Amino acid sequence: MSNYVQSTNFATKDALTSGDPLKIVKGTEINTEFVNIAVAIATKADSASPTFTGTTTITNVNITGGSITGITDLAVVDGGTGASTAANARTNLSAAASGANSDITSLSAITTPLSVAQGGTGSATLTANNVILGNGTSAVQVVAPSTSKNVLTSNGTSWSSSAPGQLQYNLYTSGTTTFTAPAGVTSIKVICIGGGGGGGSYDAGGPANGGNGGNGGIAIGIYTVVPGTGYVATVGAGGAGTNTASTNGSAGGTSSLGSLLSATGGGGGVSGDSTGNDGAAGAGTNGVTANSSVGFGQTGAGGDFVGATSRGNAASATAAVTWTAALNRVPGATGAGGTTSSNASGGTGGAVYIEYIG
Questions:
Q1: pLDDT tens-digit readout, 97-117
Q2: Confidence of residue 81 (pLDDT cuts 50, 70, 90)
Q3: 337 in a domain, yes or no?
Q4: What is the percentage of the chain residues whose pLDDT exceeds 90?
Q5: Residue 41: in which H helix or E strand, if any?
Q6: For a Cys staple, 295 with which of 90, 240, 274, 286, CB 3.0–4.6 Å?
Q7: 63 located within any domain
């Protein structure tokens, strides 16, 4: 391409004097100007829909609207993508498609950790073996393993690494005691055992034996409790045996834990009478059933009379025992009926047993 360059300045001829040969306009001068114009026009592009051939160098291009078609794909080094399709362009540029896609194989050179909202963790590193916890849209939280054999424990709001709870129990064998649910304990297992009934009296006039007392009832249940709240444990006493003629043994007392659970005591044994009739057995009782609890009670044996010799049916009666701190004794056992004027025994006291993980 070339620009038009004027060869003859015709305006200067006007100032020349007549007769000056340079004042004459020559046909060759005019022809030269037309040739220069023709060459300039022939080598310039039209402003409307120009066509270029060969190698064209354009320093600056400002394209407003329209489109460019029919060109060879611009190489990446020339500011293009080296492709004529979006898929090939992403391949050449090592770029992933926007929106949902499956062609992302790795991310690198990211200087700021991806936030949770962006599908990241909000953290640049995560310590090995830590447990990751959600934290809304904020960076994730972690819990370190801490001590060996620890477990992940919830307080209802957050998690921590702590030693596992151990099986704990409280055993009450007499009187009234308040059990306070420990911190963190919301469920307990309860066993209530009523006191055993006392044995009935022996009557020498018959002679006739007294009846054995009945076993105390047993009730078992699992209950929800509130940490820090007190629950009154009441242990039913064993019924007293009696050696007063024609007198029945006393019933055992009721064992309970507040209003949650209770088990009544066994009935007292009936005394023998002066006509030779042995005393009837005291009634066994059932514990109050609640949620998964069960209850049972055994009736004590009646008196036994053989010929002129009276004797208690001791084989079917359980003698009173003393409670220790273990559950290897029999609470709520019956009192044996009297077989002489002085050997009717009292029933064993009951118990309240509370078990929980703490």
A1: 777 767 677 777 778 888 888
A2: confident
A3: yes
A4: 13
A5: helix 27-42
A6: 286
A7: no
Note whether 213 and 355 are same-domain residues: yes
Query: Considering only CA atoms, which of 243, 266, 242 is closest in space to residue 253?
Result: 266
On whether both 212 and 297 belong to a single domain, the answer is: yes
How confident is the model over 170-209, as pLDDT tens digits? 999 999 999 999 998 999 999 988 888 888 888 777 778 8
- The dihedrals phi and psi of 123, each to the nearest 5 degrees, come to -125, 145
- State how far the Cα of 131 lies from the Cα of 337, in Å rounded to an integer: 66
Say if pTM beats, i.e. exceeds, 0.85.
Answer: no
| Structural domain span for residue 88 | 71-99
298 and 354 both lie in a single domain: yes
In this prediction, residues 240-261 reach a mean pLDDT of: 87
What letter represents residue 345's amino acid? S
* Domains: count for the chain: 4
110 assigned to some structural domain:
no
| CA dihedral for 46, 49, 52, 58, sign (positive or negative) | positive
Tokens 């629950």 belong to residue: 231
Task: Round to whole Å and give the CA distance between 104 and 351.
Answer: 69
Is the dihedral angle over the CA atoms 147, 148, 153, 159 positive or is it negative? positive
How many Å separate Cα 274 from the centre of its chain?
A: 70
262 and 333 housed in the same domain: yes
Q: Of 197, 209, 195, whose CA–CA distance to 282 is shortest? A: 197
DSSP string, 318-334: PPP----SSS-S-TTPP
Examine the domain organization and report whether 243 and 346 are in the same domain.
yes
What secondary structure letter does DSSP report for 13?
G
Mean pLDDT of 301-321: 31
| Pair of tokens at residue 47 | 């402003």
